[in-house]
Amino acid sequence: MSAPITKPDTRTPACPVSYALSTNENPYRPLRSVRRAVRAESGRLNRYPDPSCAELTARLAERFHVPAEHIVVGPGSIGVVQQLLRARASAGEEVVYAWRSFEGYPIITQIAGARSVPVPLAHPEVHDLDAMAGAITNHTRLVFVCNPNNPTGTVLRRTALRRFLDRVPPDVPVVLDEAYREFVRDPDTPDGVELYGDYPNLVVLRTFSKAYGLAGLRVGFAIAHESIAAAMGSYTVPFGVTALAQAAAIASLHAESELLDRVEALVEERRRVLNGLRDIGCPVPGSEANFLWLPLGEQTVEFATACGGEGLIVRPYPGEGVRITIGDPASNDRVLRVAAEYFSSSRP
Predict the structure, then answer these.
(1) SS3 content of the chain, % helix, strand, coil (to 5)
(2) CA of 84: how far to CAs of 101, 142, 144, 146, 257, in Å?
(3) Residue 221: phi, psi to the nearest 5?
(4) How much is the pLDDT for 346?
(5) CA–CA separation, 242 and 264 (whole Å)
(6) Neighbours of 242 (CB within 10 A)
(7) Where are the beta strands (DSSP E) in 178-253?
């Protein structure tokens, strides 16, 4: 029998806004069992955490049926991939990624001293894999593929991704960022863990921040073949993953079925909000993540301002669109109400 889903945490401390829907956080508070594990670990805060994350690594290896030597744990998935960039890229070398995509890619590329090669998305708001393959040169040291893509929520199909991976030189790592994998319901969306065995240069990123609801503790991991995993491990920041984060992640793996009940509730809300927005004429592409993308162009800032006036923080990308995180039913109801009022008044 599924565990009951507790009420989402909609509090926003020190902020008058009722609902923060801008950073793709899970609206549910940590499970009671996870909070217990964190409290127990807090009694040992005078001790350093395990720098190898050995127990968490072993649990992840068991969960995903991969060798422990293929797993690298770090402070969030972006922290893990930053280790790979340090191992692979240097000044003047190139990193290829779709744009618009996750905003962290250009930031960590710049930190590494490498050069960004952004490739525009194709219609309808998906990675242009042919153009990305064409952008790879002798100077390319890394390629990012975000699936589902942030901020558009769109996904790549299995055949298209395999065709792309077949075109990438085997000495160029491809980072498949699957931060939102648990929210995917499209059966033709590939699972990177199933794919990586066929591609020695494929690195799969996952995180505990989104579906597992541990955004405040910063723990993520990569699954890659041993040569790449070892290179990443050599740039691990000592004690980068706190003891509290490790304890919470292990407890979350123990309670995964309960957590996935929450994910299913969010997927149902995503479907409801998507249909509601389309019913009022908002051109929303399908999403397989825990957010929706409204490609509003020049109306972006105006719509985000309208949301803010009604107690909703959303994420505007001026001139492009608005990303709205799926929250609890009350916040989603407010999104639909604000959108209905806005689009009815903005029509000629």
Answers:
(1) 40, 15, 40
(2) 19, 9, 12, 16, 31
(3) -155, 160
(4) 67
(5) 29
(6) 17
(7) 202-207, 220-223
Kindly write down the DSSP assignment for every residue of 142-157, as one continuous string: EEEEESS-TTT-----
Q: Which helix (H) or strand (E) holds 177?
A: strand 174-177
Instruction: Give the integer Cα–Cα distance in Å for 303 and 335.
Output: 11
Per-residue pLDDT at 347? 58
pLDDT at 5: 46
Place of tokens 């790592």: 173
pTM of structure: 0.93
Q: What are the structure tokens assigned to 173, written together?
A: 């790592």
Q: How far apart are CA 35 and CA 332, in angstroms?
A: 27
Residues of the chain with pLDDT under 70: 1-17, 346-348
Torsion-angle region of 5 (φ positive above 0: left; ψ -120 to 50: alpha; else: beta): beta
Structure tokens at 146: 């975000």
Q: How far apart are CA 30 and CA 34, in angstroms?
A: 6
Q: Quick one: which H or E segment has residue 211? A: none
Helices 256-279, 243-254: axis angle to 10 degrees equals: 80
Q: Residue 239 is encoded by which pair of tokens?
A: 């004690």
CA 340 → CA 41, 269, 284, 305, 344, distances in Å? 47, 17, 14, 15, 6
141: amino acid identity, one letter: R
* Widest Cα–Cα separation across the chain: 64
How far is residue 161 from each of residues 73, 123, 140, 195, 217, measured CA to CA in Å?
Answer: 25, 16, 19, 10, 32
DSSP state of 337: H
Coil, helix or strand at residue 181: helix
Half-sphere exposure of 16 (CA within 13 A, CB side): 3
Residue 345: predicted pLDDT: 80
